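Reader question, answered in our methods column.
A reader sent in the components of a multi-part assembly and asked whether the whole thing could be modeled at once rather than chain by chain. We filled in our standard form and ran it. Here is what they sent:
COMPLEX SIZE: two components
ENTRIES:
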Amino acid sequence: MDLQPEDQIPGLTQLKDAFTKQISAEQCCSQLRHDYQVLFEGPGKLPAPPWESVYLSAEKLIFDEQTMAVRQFYKKHNIQISNFGKEPDDHIGLELQFMAILADKSFQLLLEHNISDFHTAISAQVDFLKEHLLQWASQFADLVCLNAETSFYKGLGLFLPWYLESDFDFLNSYVLTETT
Amino acid sequence: MGEHKNSSSDASASNKKQLSRRSFLKLSAGVVAGTSLAGCGSFSTALVPANASSGDEDVKIIPTAGSHNCGGRCVLKAHVKGGVVQRITTDEESENEKIPQLRACLRCRSYRERLYHPDRLKYPMKRVGKRGENKFERISWDEATTTIANELKRVVSQYGPEAIYWQLASGDTSILAERFFMRRLLSLNGGCLTWYGSYSSACTSMATPYTYGTGNTGNSLDTLQHSKLIILWGFNPAETVFGTNTSFFLKKAKEAGAKIIVIDPRYSDTAAAFADEWIPNLPTTDNAVMDAMTYVMITENLYDKAFVDKYCIGFDEDQMPDGIPDGNSLKTYILGLKDGIPKTPEWAEKISRVPADRIRRLAREYATVKPAALIQGYGSQRHAYGEQPPRGATVLAAITGNVGVLGGWASGAGSYSRVSVPALPFNNPVKKMISMFQWAEAIERGAELTAEDGVMNGDRLASNVKLMVNIGGNVPANQHSDINSTLKILEDESKCEFILTAEHFMTPSALYSDIILPATMYFERESIATPWTWGDYVLYQGIAVDPPFECRDGYDWMCEVAEKLGLKDKFTEGRTREGWVRFILDGIRQKHPEFPSYEEFKARGVYKFNFAEPQIAFKAQIENPEANPFPTPSGKIEIFSQRLYEMNKPDEIPAIPKYIESWEGPSDPLKEQFPLQCFAWHSKAFSHSTYHNIDWLREAQNMVLWINTTDAKARGIENGDRVRVFNKRGELEIEAKVTTRIMPGVVAMPQGSWFKPDSNGVDQGGCINTITKYHPTPLAKGNPQHTNLVEVKKA
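And here is the structure of the entire assembly that came back:
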């Protein structure tokens, strides 16, 4: 499995554009902050709510069953949200951070030659992708693309589903290899 | 899958390692994605190592209570696990016929939908575009409270405290609602302009005391089981939930044999559930029917002469106060002795469309079947001459002798209270008030408003309104009349210079704010709730969960504002919110020593008083009138009011109740252009505009315009069609419900929908106030929001 050429990876062109425009860092930050606020903070109806349960629960609410399932998943790995009970545990950023934490952990385990725990950590990533991120992130990302003003967030919206799919294929191929 | 497996199985260990490392590169990108999506440092939440107490505890049940401005105040129990409300239940205590359970209705039972709505306001915001343009920027709480403190200081020093308006806001009606803390704070900061009346009951609250000297004319509802006849006039408790258990007691009354008649242009759910007979009349014509009933009672000698002689003044020419010229009594008016128009049932039929024989039968029944309760809702009085229906019905109750007796009802405002719960103390140096309906006019030309216009406790205002605080309400751009004109006033930043809103959602009114603060809901802060109009109980509102995001209790941020104004100690008196709850409970205990301790009250969530006797308004006055005069100037029931007479505006403020032809009523020539009378009812699915954004409740009651089959046919409108409802003030679009449940010539829609103008200014939200008029009523300066002429066409 090889990395795709950059120009075939969705979103990278837009992400590059975002940082090559002739605007000051201040302007850039202010545009990003504005886009972020409108997309994910409000006030008012959020065009791209960043929480899993809003996409998957029957009532489209925050703090719903998916939030609790994600919380349980974190807990199995001795992790929790810093702002416990104040913000939903299934924010896209937190779910991605969780994947990053597991990836770091896997890497450490590999360095320690702890292959059995390494295998478990990789499987956990596969499961989390399957049970959570892949269930909703593409819907979320589509809304980000549709509603973002900056090419940065448009790019991220394009990149995210591709990335998660590729990541899943890659991790899953490892799991399948190990189980044979 | 198989192919994949085969190719992978050939890979060497080193290859695997390399592949894994590539994956880590991608995962790192994932971290970037995560943190970048989280924005430029504004997202402080992160994952951290778990601690022991992260949410595996058992379900806890926390009592709270509904306290939006709906007519119910009910027990709610939050089932909480892991800091999250999992479900909501209600009162499960045992009940009896005197003390029923306080069960929540569909509104509060769907509260999770509101509490966990993704559109909830989450962070303090300041306006960055033009006012109303919907451009806001997130700010810190510190910046918000600093701005508020500075603006309060600036406006008081520049214009004086009368330029600060404390807007009517009924989103939270609990005793320690945020807005009451705000009034306390503004009072300490030099004061603020406040209001009298309410959008609910302005006219009846003002007019009823002209008959009885008080608006407390209601009985405890257990008395209804003694009524033989109950007339519900413009009263729809099945949908409005006018008192948590009003429907319960009406059912008990019906079981006990009472006949129930509903008078309403619309066959409401109350009519459907309880009525033996439904009498529709055209809006604004209630007094024509009442006058004709009085005519029948006089001409057929059915009225209670002994009662009238003993307790009333103004019935006939022999019963008038000294110095009043002949020809001003009720009897003279009804018989047409002076104006030449006897108020016969035939006369009333032409006006109201109620058949004359039906009016005769109603008059005879009400005068002879005793005891009888004529109970008014607030619908009839939210009209151009809304003072007249409560005056008319109180007089009918009096001349039939139904006042002060078990099973009777004195009519009018109908409130009662025998449980004393103190308010949050405040001492506002500004005593002047305007009618709650006049605030937009006070922004426009407050300094020109005089006592004649409705200014109370002073001749005129010192200033136009320059700063408005709107803490938990959607009056400004939704619930007030004539939205299109009002928005022009709100948009102009030179008029009202600063508008502060604390809210749960981005309502049409919040849109017209300079600072918006994310407020807590009643599951997230402690308070005390009391019944709305009827009931003998007090409810505890406990904290079930933390406020999410940066939502913050009003008392908390107001303490910060107070500190910046140098008023913190005076404002708090050293009390936390819990301290104020204890303070209020101590106040209750002064009058009711049996009231439980804070701890007991908190654990049970409610205290239900058990009074030995039912409450009957004016029982003492009727049983022993010498010792207990009515609290009127004459000490009698004032059919004729000398105070009203002396206002010297007999056409609009008559001294006896009269039918007054209404602007935009059935006889207004404007009917040629706009032939349909349009009013709004209180839907079972909303409490004013609260809950309007809750999908569950929209399924129970969508926004529809009820239109009679004949009116619909004449316009080619079929059930489910989208229609335009319009007059000179505005236009809205809504779905038509073609039905015989509303009388011909009248259309109606639920009130409370959120105003949502499209690019042509046509309201797609179906908000009635797009077409209502700003035209204060003559005496109460109240809101005539049910008096509207419109035309309806297929969209």
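What stands out: Chain A touches chain B through 72 residues (CB under 8 Å). The beta strands of chain A are 79-81.
Send us your own complexes using the same form.
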